[in-house]
Design goal:
Layout: E1 9-11, E2 24-28, H1 29-32, E3 33-37, E4 52-55, E5 64-68, E6 78-81, E7 90-93, E8 98-99, E9 104-108, H2 112-120, H3 136-140, E10 143-146, H4 149-187
Helix pairs in contact: 2-4
């Protein structure tokens, strides 16, 4: 009889794609990835437009605060996670980039769309009493259930399609709101 490894918890989700029956294994994110924190912006290389985006903790403008033409710190694919402000917000990144300030970058062999959603589904526990902050060691302690690579890709693709559809409809709603605002200004005294 084989001894069971007590450090690895196994679980099965309620809803699965057809053909997948393997149990998911719970592991610490730090054992499945490399997590680095962003640093300072090199203002001498900063461009308004360029080859490699510079991402910060901002959720607006996709977090882009500028570009570098010939430099990046993280090779895609990777996931960024906000470390200050709205902490714990993950975003899959599919271009080489540089994280700055307290933005965390997660490099892993796991599907980035799956990992984005797994991190976003994780309850963030902010340990500080001042400005909310998530550090690389805290993020590394996240315990996440991982399925097989093929199931990760299916799940990641499914949620990416949902996010793209939501974004498309949000843009349409924003346009309608602007049209309504124009009509209101023109049709009321």
């Amino acid at each position: 009889m084989a001894k069971i490894d007590d450090s690895v918890k196994k679980k099965v989700p309620e809803l699965r794609f057809k053909g997948f029956t393997d149990e998911w294994e719970e592991r610490k994110l730090s054992t499945e990835s490399t997590i680095t924190a962003g640093g300072d912006i090199d203002k001498s290389k900063l461009k308004e437009f360029g080859e490699y985006p510079i991402f910060a903790n901002a959720l607006t403008n996709d977090g882009i605060v500028g570009y570098y033409d010939s430099y990046y710190r993280v090779e895609a694919p990777a996931v960024t996670v906000t470390g200050r402000g709205d902490v714990g917000h993950a975003k899959a990144r599919k271009v080489n980039f540089t994280p700055v300030v307290r933005l965390l970058a997660v490099k892993s062999n796991h599907d980035v769309d799956f990992l984005e959603n797994a991190i976003n589904n994780h309850k963030v526990l902010v340990e500080s009493t001042g400005v909310p902050q998530l550090t690389a060691p805290q993020l590394g302690n996240y315990k996440i259930f991982f399925p097989t690579g093929e199931e990760q890709e299916k799940i990641g693709s499914f949620f990416k399609q949902l996010d793209d559809t939501i974004a498309l409809h949000q843009r349409k709603l924003d346009l309608l709101k602007e049209q309504k605002k124009g009509f209101l200004q023109q049709m009321f005294v």
